[in-house]
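Office hours follow-up: a student asked to see two folded examples consecutively, so here they are.
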Amino acid sequence: MSKSFPFDDWKTWPVVTGRVAAEPDLASGAAVFHQQGRGVAYASERELPALAIARIEGRSEEKVVVVQMEKTPTGEILCGARNIEGRDLVCMLDELTFVENFP
């Protein structure tokens, strides 16, 4: 579910940190995905929300705001983000390059 938030006010966007996302987090726009009880909380050193460039194979680079990070049952780190058009995006942590500002 994509919920519209003003992009120029990204620092105030709701996020999910220190726990896994649940259905209400999707409805509020704080989360982009949930793993239906199978996810594991991920303690990131990075404060969310955070700006990043997403580089996903087969797609062009996208400027995104990361609002969520969780481990999968196999230990991979999934990230939930929104691009500047407000579209939700799920990707792996290694597909993101975090930036202070967009170039």
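And the second, which I mentioned at the end of office hours:
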Amino acid sequence: MESKPKRARKKAAKPSKQQPEQDSSQDASSIKTRVRTPAVIAFGVVLRELRQRKRLSQDAVASLVDAETEEVAAIERGAREPTLVMLFKLAAALDVEPSELIARMERKLQ
């Protein structure tokens, strides 16, 4: 029985020390999550107040807006900036107008 010649394995290229290796799990939305501006924090406070006033859990709100509980929690902490679509979904879940969420947030900022 004749053996086949072994193929040389190619070594994986090492990341350059000059350029940091990028995490492929990071996308544009995860970059936004690190920005804690006063407006994002104020929105989170408003969201938490309204959610608690309605006696809803974060899990219940997440279910109503078709999101993960952690996403709602991150928005409330001011660790994640909600998208415009999410703003409308949250408003509907809390039975308020989107403009009311923004108005309450603006009052918090004054």
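Two things to take away from it. Residues 12-33 have pLDDT under 50 and may be disordered. The domain at 31-109 is CATH 1.10.260.40 (434 Repressor (Amino-terminal Domain)).
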